[in-house]
Amino acid sequence: MTELNILVIDDEEKLRSLLKRLIALEGYKVYDTGTLTVATQLLKTHTIDVVLCDVKLQDGNGVEFTKFIKQHYPAIEVILLTAFGNIPDSVQAIKNGAFDYIVKGNDNDKIIPLLSRVSEKIKLTKKIDNLEQQLEQQFSFANIIGSSPALKNAIHLAEKVAPTATAVLLTGETGTGKEIFAQAIHRNSPRKNGTFVALNCSTLNKELLESELFGHKAGAFTGANKDKKGLVEEARQGTLFLDEIGELSLELQPKLLRLLENETYIRVGDTKEMKADTRIVCATNRNLATEVAAGHFRSDLYYRIAVFQIELPALRDRPEDIIALSKHFVSVYAAKTNKNIDGLDKAAIHALQDYDWKGNVRELKNIMERAVIMEDGPQITLQSLPFELQHCNNHGNEHAGMSLAWIEQQHIGKVLKHTGWNKTEAARILGIGLATLYRKIEEYSLKP
Question: Tens digit of pLDDT for each residue in 299-319?
Fold first, then answer.
């Protein structure tokens, strides 16, 4: 049983003492007092989970004290005890936030089961609070890794717009982290307790996308057997993230514009206008201004979603962040696979820095996951990276991997592996001195 700290408030000393002993026998820690004055001090100086309080006390009323507790200590649960059942009092007690209201006399049979119910509620509340804190940390702007000026500028802009209701347009290449930014904007907004709903506009055809966004009435089309909520409704009091907004068909664009302008929409197959309450965050890897000029995107919708635009930098434009991100992903995947891998060796670092990263952070994340699976040593080595990274240096020059130094490194590595890392035997096979072999091992960061 989870230990609860319980405060018993009753001016009848014998009853209070009985309750205290009864509750303590169940393993709870109990404090007690006969006055609200002392109770108020105990609430300030002790961690209390549950208050058992008489309704009529010498220095006040338990129903009103419940209101005080819920205003100042909302996590505390209150159970009120009364000698005489009173419907108006019980109704007001529940309105003031009491967990329950019971009549004395039956309390010996009811108190312990009631405390068990309260304990379950408190455990559930704490679990939810912990999950909320984890979400806050996971989608905190502080957890977006990187120190490059371009990334810092994007974070600064996102922090500025997050507390507002303004629509946001996130732009940048695929894999730059647009959904992570959208989540962070949501979690740092007044809507953080609402739902974050994401939809990729490129994954559905026009008809399905409209139904997914706005919902439909039963009979609206073949297979629509019952009313269906749309994502706009699912994201009520939350945030709707529309990824790849540039893929939205010209037929649907006016309907999204109406949602943004009037905060209204109509379900497919319905005539009734519905009120929306969601914040819109959009993302695209396209140049929407060019799409407008080409007639593929409405200019009025573009200007409406681009009220506040944030450009996310490509990974190749923030090279100083590559190794920090790599180490982070290695740490994450090493923990998931129960491997003791700490960082990267010099050769791997050089290869990562020289690569072009056309897939941006998403590509780096996938490569680090693969590298952790492949690596058997204490650090990520060049050999655990994909072929294209081993062979491509100097920003994607496909012939750089065939340099004499690279071929020498690979050959020495193979010979060492063949001899089981017997350096004397390896040096004999290679036809070089043992001191030269040791120098080459250090130069190329070779490891067993």
Answer: 999 999 999 999 999 999 999
